[in-house]
Design brief:
It is a single chain. About 25% of the residues lie in helices and about 30% in strands. It has about 80 residues and is α+β, with helices and mostly antiparallel strands. It has a single domain (about 1-70), classed as Winged helix-like DNA-binding domain superfamily/Winged helix DNA-binding domain (Arc Repressor Mutant, subunit A, Orthogonal Bundle). The chain has a three-stranded antiparallel sheet with strand order 2-1-6, with no helix packed on it. The chain has a three-stranded antiparallel sheet with strand order 3-5-4, with helices on one face. The longest helix is centred in the middle third of the chain and has 12 residues, at about 35-45. The chain is globular.
Length: about 80
């Protein structure tokens, strides 16, 4: 599955990543609230510009990038 982050720019996400995105799309969350394996997933999705992160004094806050668009039926090139 692909997510369009800008015109002509798409990134590939797996089904597990997509379920994580759908689970956390409504509100922001902190990295310390997640188990370690999901912290790595949130960091990787933030590197792909799907989540935006805000560095706090002792933690990191994540929120869904509002400028993305989900493209379900596309081919990987």
């Amino acid at each position: 599955m692909f997510i369009q982050i800008a015109p002509r720019v798409k990134v590939f996400v797996t089904e597990e990543d997509m379920s994580f995105i759908m689970q956390h799309r409504s509100e922001s969350f902190r990295g310390s609230e997640l188990p370690p394996e999901q912290q790595d997933r949130a960091k990787r999705l933030a590197d792909k510009a799907i989540f935006v992160r805000k560095k706090l004094d002792t933690d990191v806050q994540y929120a869904l990038n509002r400028q993305i668009r989900i493209v379900r039926n596309d081919t990987k090139k």
